[in-house]
Amino acid sequence: MEPKLIGYDETPIDVTDTNKHIVVNADPYNKSNPEIRPMQETDEICSPCVKPFSQRLQSSAKGKLSQIFENRDCSSDLSGTGTARSRLYELCASYCWKPPSFECCKAEGPDHLKQFTCKVTLEIEEAQNLILEFVGEPLSKKKDAAESAAEGAFWYLQHEGYLPSRGN
């Protein structure tokens, strides 16, 4: 008896033009041929969140960033659920920025009452190599100190006009 590979029933798809975007509509459990059709251009998509990144950040950092967030209906996901750290990671990922860098920069006090201070660094290459650093308050847990630094980053971005205010 010859061994059989279980679960491998896929037929390979020959993609010749790599510059075209394609959408494959197929049921992974169905053995029939999938339907392949061209993906619609970003101009035809109704969501205002979909724009080529090169159109988003072009000249001044502050003006363009605030314009991005004003035009973005998806900004509600940055203000609601999750920790400030996770929302900061989501913000950076959604605009193709480098991920935020969290660093414990100071630990002070006796061993049984340590206070940790963390800083977060945001690097935005598209905005003339803009690097922002935010330092949180000293707290007894490193995780809480990093959260404090992330909240400080959101506070700064909001009050300097990079993000829309929560009242909007």
TrEMBL record:
Domain of life here?
Eukaryota
The UniProt entry, under InterPro entries, shows: dsRBD_dom
Q: Which stretches make up the DRBM domain?
A: 83-159
Q: Which GO terms describe its molecular function?
A: RNA binding
Pfam families reported in the protein's UniProt record: DND1_DSRM
Sorted keywords for this record are: RNA-binding
What name is this protein filed under?
Answer: DRBM domain-containing protein
Q: Which organism is it from?
A: Glycine max
Species lineage, top-down?
A: Eukaryota, Viridiplantae, Streptophyta, Embryophyta, Tracheophyta
